[in-house]
Design brief:
Chain lengths: 435, 492
């Protein structure tokens, strides 16, 4: 919840819709894959901050107009969900549109970023969910907020049932191309893409749910799961130098990749502060290189694997934990798809936060969205609708942070139960000098 | 089998009758001339010369009779009304970014009318049966939730439509702005100060002695009223050309209240506009597309019910909107009948007039129980442009005038692609026919428009030159998809 004095920071809210410029046609339907349906209770909230140079002279109309051409390439994101006779959700591509929110803020971009309060991000991006009426719930919300300095923020609120963060990022980057009149000529033919069933599962494993997902109580047409405790987001900026130091501290040399190092640090720290139980199993999500087709959106190209620790993580040596993460991750996508398929796509699951989840967004091209050739000054992403175990997102840094050599820092965003945040922060500071 | 051969026989009988009556003069004259020719040929050349010299042509008589002939011919030609030519016209094509799919409109209505789901459901049902497609357009102010009309937004829409169609038209016809002598702009609901015609004069720097008129409040038939005004002015001013611009600004039209009779506007009216260039110059004759043959205006305002059937008013909550009466179709039918009674004798061939007269005598004088004879207007016109007021209007007129599906195709497809664009819809329909390559030289077009008041106005144009494939126009990118079949009830 945002405090009352912060409620008025963003004002003059106007709602409208933007859809594809071309008629998609009647009776066009997009069927989500099993993997898509496994992710349906999650939502991505991304905010892109642009300086005044990047958006000079951009009126609301000039921002909206290229969207009509852009959305021709992604017409199914403008549709609305229905349920088939079996209860399985599908998207009716009726060109209803994405929702656009226009807003104003009396702070400058710098003042806003200075506040370093991740919860304020909620004011710059819609916290929509799909439901309670499926046929009237937009899947994508875009919020354009104008700041006092002339800068602008773009808030992308994205239903994870459409695709993962990498695809969402590609989706919004293409809007940047549309603004610069550089869209590809013809939209990709969606009929050729298929939802792949990755690594079909063993028969013996089919009966039980995989470790990476958690079956939740039926949510009906209100696609959000309730948390038992309030979750709070907070971020760390790990510089390139810090990262090298941490890598050395963990494994004595730079061999362990940065993501696994950060996972080790946070797994151990959380294990130490977690009052309820020590997380033995974690879920790790990362991009599967080479399996994405340009112009398509997918949930199936994000590897979801679990790592199980046979030993006590909080007492183990960091390099053992790191080795576990690097070598013993089990890809569970096939099992997830089988679990969804078993119930005909009708059951409700969560993936992020079912266990402590680490999401590697290093390869997402967050800074690929350019306006007038300028990259955003800052990008932040959160995931909503996560489970109680918490989520750690590792994202690429901003353009200012690239190191002299090819090494770069990282932005780590943690979404964790509110009552344990202080302890976690002090543990991280104490043990790893992360503040 | 018997009925088929009977209907074929009837058809040929009808054709024979029509041919006979319509060419009765020819049928009489030819035998007479033939007789005369045979008589002359049977005489020898000497006898012809004798007859010729016996006529005693006197120089004075000759001069006198020639002068008389010349005098009467001059009086005849001088008193003949000037021919009015339609040089060309342009229709507004809204950009794709103004598109309002049905699903979007319904969703917006739900969000703007949370307290009243019944009125939203009512509008959804209207949309399903409206005959409008998913490509119709509204101004951006109407795409906000709730819509944000303002005077400024109305002006912006007006500038977009008016300047766009006028630019198009001036380019197509190669007309210079200094050559425009008469300017008539019609827009029913929006009438700011300075007027829309002043807006046009300002933008295009028209001459200071231009005769400009701004017609507001005259409803969907205002385009033909403007054409009528232009025609009268062109009779008075020789060697002139008139620019007529017809539009309806949609920005302020959204009705946010709960009266069922007043929400129809939200469902049917869409963005559109047209600019027409008329001329009475002889030089424009060869390049013009059409010539105006007749224009008949009928006003039923004297009847109270007709007067109130399209009525702008405030509802019980004080929200302003336009109410459409349940008796609209009935009143439209009556107005059409009046209009046909005047225009029929001007355009129908003798065969139809005779049949109509015959039936009328039988009904009124002999008091026989005959059904009123509906003249076959397909004999008088090749093309029909019925104002795309709504599916009901087109259905009603198709029935009343006994038109085929092809005759009303232009109207139905215009309603589907562009919605009810008010006064400019007859021009989109004309353009549809041209885009389909159906407009040939000599074809006669009947434009019928209805409007608040209640008015029924109709114009008859004759095509001056065959119009081959168009290279511009609002139908250019979609004519290949038309005609489409429009289901009775859309699945929304």
């Amino acid at each position: 919840m945002v405090s009352s004095d912060h409620q008025n920071l963003v004002y003059d809210i106007k709602l409208s819709s933007v859809g594809p410029g071309h008629v998609t046609g009647s009776n066009v339907v997009h069927e989500p894959s099993n993997m898509d349906l496994a992710m349906k209770l999650h939502y991505l909230r991304g905010v892109y901050f642009f300086s005044s140079e990047a958006v000079q002279g951009l009126t609301v109309y000039r921002i909206k107009e290229p969207m009509f051409t852009w959305l021709n390439h992604y017409y199914w994101t403008c549709g609305r969900f229905r349920r088939s006779n079996s209860g399985r959700p599908l998207i009716k591509c009726n060109d209803c549109g994405v929702r656009i929110i226009e807003a104003k803020c009396d702070k400058t971009i710098d003042e806003w970023l200075e506040m370093k309060d991740s919860s304020l991000t909620k004011l710059l991006v819609s916290n929509h969910i799909i439901g309670p009426e499926l046929p009237f719930s937009p899947l994508v919300f875009l919020q354009v907020t104008s700041f006092k300095c002339g800068g602008m923020s773009l808030g992308l609120s994205w239903a994870h049932v459409l695709a993962d963060a990498f695809s969402a990022s590609d989706f919004i980057n293409m809007w940047g191309q549309a603004m610069a009149n550089q869209l590809p000529q013809h939209p990709v033919d969606l009929s050729k893409s298929s939802s792949m069933l990755v690594k079909p599962a063993n028969r013996s494993q089919l009966a039980t749910d995989p470790l990476s997902i958690k079956r939740v109580d039926p949510v009906g047409d209100n696609w959000i799961t309730a948390n038992n405790c309030k979750m709070e987001p907070f971020s760390f900026h790990i510089t390139a130098t810090q990262l090298t130091q941490l890598q050395t501290k963990i494994s004595g040399h730079k061999a362990t990749p940065p993501f696994e190092c950060l996972c080790t640090i946070f797994w151990q720290s959380i294990a130490r502060v977690c009052s309820r139980h020590e997380p033995e199993i974690v879920t790790v999500c990362k991009n599967e290189r080479g399996s994405r087709r340009t112009g398509t959106l997918s949930n199936s190209a994000q590897i979801i694997s679990t790592v199980k620790a046979d030993f006590s993580v909080k007492e183990a040596k960091p390099k053992d934990v790191a080795a576990l993460l690097v070598e013993h991750a089990v890809d569970e996508r096939g099992l997830i798809e089988a679990a969804v398929e078993r119930d005909g796509g009708v059951s409700d699951f969560i993936v992020y936060g079912a266990n402590l989840t680490f999401v590697n967004l290093e390869e997402a091209s967050f800074y690929g969205l350019e306006l007038k050739g300028q990259k955003p000054v800052h990008v932040s992403y959160l995931i909503d609708g996560i489970g109680d175990e918490g989520v750690v997102l590792v994202a690429p840094p901003g353009p200012k942070d690239s190191g002299k050599d090819s090494s770069e820092g990282r932005i780590v965003t943690v979404i964790f139960p509110e009552d344990q945040v202080m302890e976690l922060k002090s543990e991280l500071k104490r043990e790893w000098s992360i503040a | 089998m018997a009925s088929l051969s009977n209907s074929v026989k009837l058809k040929y009988f009808k054709l024979g009758y029509q041919y006979l009556v319509n060419h009765i003069l020819t049928f009489f004259l030819i035998p007479i001339l033939m007789g005369f020719l045979i008589k002359i040929l049977s005489l020898g050349s000497d006898q012809i010369f004798e007859i010729w010299s016996s006529l005693h042509f006197d120089l004075l008589q000759f001069l006198g009779s020639s002068l008389m002939i010349i005098f009467f011919a001059t009086v005849y030609f001088m008193s003949k009304p000037r021919s009015i030519y339609l040089v060309d016209y342009a229709c507004f094509k809204p950009p794709a970014s103004y598109r309002v799919p049905h699903s979007t409109l319904v969703e917006h209505l739900r969000l703007s009318n949370k307290d009243n789901p019944e009125i939203v459901e009512f509008q959804r049902r209207i949309l399903q049966r409206s005959g409008l497609g998913d490509e119709t357009c509204l101004a951006p102010a109407n795409l906000y939730i709730p819509p944000t009309p303002s005077l400024e937004a109305s002006r912006v829409e007006a500038e977009l439509i008016l300047f766009s169609v006028i630019d198009d038209l001036l380019k197509k016809t190669g007309t210079k702005t200094k050559d425009i002598d008469i300017l008539i702009v019609n827009c029913s609901i929006v009438s700011p100060t300075p007027s829309l015609s002043a807006m046009v004069i300002n933008k295009y720097k028209l001459r200071s002695n231009i005769k400009s008129f701004n017609l507001s409040g005259m409803g969907c038939s205002a385009s033909l009223i403007s054409i009528d005004l232009a025609r009268d002015l062109l009779q008075v001013h020789p060697n002139s050309c008139a620019l007529v611009v017809s539009t309806e600004i949609t920005t302020p039209n959204y009705y946010s209240g709960n009266e069922r009779s007043m929400v129809l506007i939200n469902c049917l009216f869409r963005m559109g506009g047209a600019a027409i260039l008329l001329s009475n110059r002889k030089a424009d004759r060869s390049r013009s597309k059409y010539q105006l043959l007749h224009l008949v205006r009928t006003h039923k305002g004297a009847d109270d019910e007709a007067y109130r059937c399209i009525h702008e008013q405030e509802d019980t909550q004080g929200i302003q909107g336009v109410s459409l009466s349940k008796d609209l179709m009935l009143i439209a039918g009556e107005a059409l009948k009046s209009n046909i009674t005047t225009i029929g004798p001007l355009v129908l061939p003798a065969s139809e007039k005779l049949l109509f007269l015959f039936t009328l005598i039988g009904q009124k004088i002999l008091k026989l129980k005959w059904k009123p004879y509906i003249p076959d207007f397909k004999q008088a016109f090749e093309h029909f442009c019925i104002h795309a007021g709504g599916r009901g209007v087109i259905d009603e007129l198709q029935k009343k005038l006994q038109l085929s599906a092809k005759d009303v195709e232009a109207s139905r497809m215009t309603l589907h692609r562009f919605g009810n664009t008010s006064s400019s819809s007859i021009w989109y329909e004309m353009n549809y026919i041209e885009s389909k390559g159906r407009m040939k030289k000599g074809d006669r077009v009947w434009q019928i428009a209805f409007g608040s008041g209640f008015k029924c106005n109709s114009a008859v144009w004759k095509c001056n030159r065959t119009i081959t494939t168009l290279t511009d126009g609002p139908w250019l990118d979609c004519i290949g998809r038309y005609p489409v079949s429009i289901s009775q009830v859309l699945d929304l």
